[in-house]
């Protein structure tokens, strides 16, 4: 198990991440979401010791990465903003990675390059964005690290490359020997991929969602009432996602049978359940207020 414990990082006297703690197991695909600039990349850089933490630890099977750098072999991250890969040819990259990841699988690396029609002679910096994303993932998989961090791996990719990456990730976790931590600000990309989503907000880990539990409890509803006044039960128990005329689309984080009775007792003109997406949960949790004042 990888444990992030009370990790804290300031940059230029500004708190970027504060007291972040979570556990991550092989076999899990954990999503990390949060608005632009909230500190997702900073969290990854601090976890991998590119930035030194001001407080807190990262432990892999109880080995502190700060005290035992060799444990870092089990954690993989390519910083997409700052890395040394640009000037090198793809065929040369394993030489560098094998220095750290002594378990690096060179044969599989070559096979995967061939499978995705990537030319070992090409320089990394000459690759398209989608090709780079594929190479990053191939390096991650062939490093044979147990814990793999992917920072916005789908950003700007076409649907085919995206599907290739998603299906490789899913295949890789099937035997429970590897885990992924994937950041994204586009929640549609994580839908169907992650079992669990961490939400970063105001420098902190605001939620650790088990999506199965969340989906079992939350409901998204489309409602229309005769009266223009919004019923109090909605204001108290739901977050407004969208309004179009009299049609309200809301998310109830905890939809109980009692709530259902209360809503039906109001005789809505329309009460219909809609499929709940990760994006709905994200919006419901990140909007500063419920937005009901929009209707006034
Ligand atoms: N090296 C640095 N020097 C100064 N400020 C930094 C540095 N690294 C990060 N920051 C600041 O920390 C904050 C968090 O940045 P970070 O890149 O971690 O966010 P993010 O959640 O990954 O954003 P995005 O989704 O836009 O990639 C930002 O305000 C950023 O300007």
From TrEMBL:
ABC transporter domain ranges (all copies): 2-227
Keyword hit for Nucleotide-binding: yes
Signal peptide (UniProt feature, chain positions): none
Annotated protein name in UniProt: Acetoin ABC transporter ATP-binding protein
Domain of life: Bacteria
Record Gene3D superfamilies: P-loop containing nucleotide triphosphate hydrolases
Pfam families: ABC_tran (PF00005)
MF (Gene Ontology): ATP binding
